Amino acid sequence: MTIEGIDRAGKSTQARMLCEALGHVALLVREPGGTAVGEHVRELLKDPSVEIGAEAEALLFAAARAELVARVIRPALAEGRVVVSDRFLDSSLAYQGAARGLGLEEVRRINGWATGGLVPDLTLLLELDSAAAARRRGESDRFESEGRALQDQVLAAYERLATAEPSRWRRIAADRPEDEVHADVLGAVRAALPKLAERVGPA
Ligand code: TYD
Questions:
Q1: Are strands 2-4 and 123-127 parallel, antiparallel or unpaired?
Q2: Which residues have C-beta atoms less than 6 Å from ligand 1?
Q3: What is the atom index within ligand 1 of the atom nearest the CA of 62?
């Protein structure tokens, strides 16, 4: 299962709280990262002194994802564990495919190859608009308008992806206290994956 949303939507906090609720069966991973290659790629992508073209950026995310799937996610699934990923291929579709303009189909294709076609059972979209995300940081006036515009495009892309595949996606309003968001996250998991629900107890 994967958690998606714009920057500062609270994905990491919710992913952690969900894994704590699920207990030992759950494995938390984050993208990019989680493997030796993934962590190096993460550093490379975050280094402001390294200029990277949009295509190379998409391929680097896909390379990190290929390693994570092959070395961590598939072995964990084979052991019967539940993997919760803080971002996954939908991040590439929204950021690289839509916001950076590479095209959803191209990005889907390279990622399909990178992951061997692995698709999450459930994807939670933490819905928070860019203005609320900026307020969270307490820097709304310093938040560059270009940065805001990018986040708006990413959110719009997520909304389209969720609408196109309603059986996989659940939308969760994220502009609320984290405990309330967590309760809805658990509710969505219970409803979508009833076998797992037994592990998190009654609502
Ligand atoms: P990160 O520090 O993980 O941000 P956050 O904690 O807010 O999720 O950095 C991830 C950044 O990389 C984030 O801005 C989204 C972007 N990203 C992509 O553009 N494509 C991808 O496929 C992934 C996984 C992340």
A1: parallel
A2: 7, 11-12, 31-32, 61, 87, 91-92, 95-96
A3: 22
Is the alpha carbon torsion for 91, 109, 73, 170 positive or negative? positive
Q: Please state which CATH class domain 2-200 belongs to.
A: alpha beta
pLDDT tens, position by position, 134-177: 888 755 444 455 688 999 999 999 999 999 999 999 999 999 99
Domain residue spans of the chain = 2-200
Residues 122 and 88: beta-carbon distance below 8 Å: no
Q: What is the distance in A from the centroid of ligand 1 to the CA of 187?
A: 26
What are the structure tokens assigned to 26, written together? 């759950």
8-state DSSP, 98: I
Q: If you take atom 14 of ligand 1, which residue's CA is the nearest one?
A: 7
| Nearest atom (ligand 1) to Cα of 8 | 7
CA of 138: how far to CAs of 6, 9, 148, in Å? 16, 14, 14
Substitution candidate for ligand 1 out of 2, 87, 96, 148 with most atoms within 8 A of CB? 87
pTM over 0.90: yes
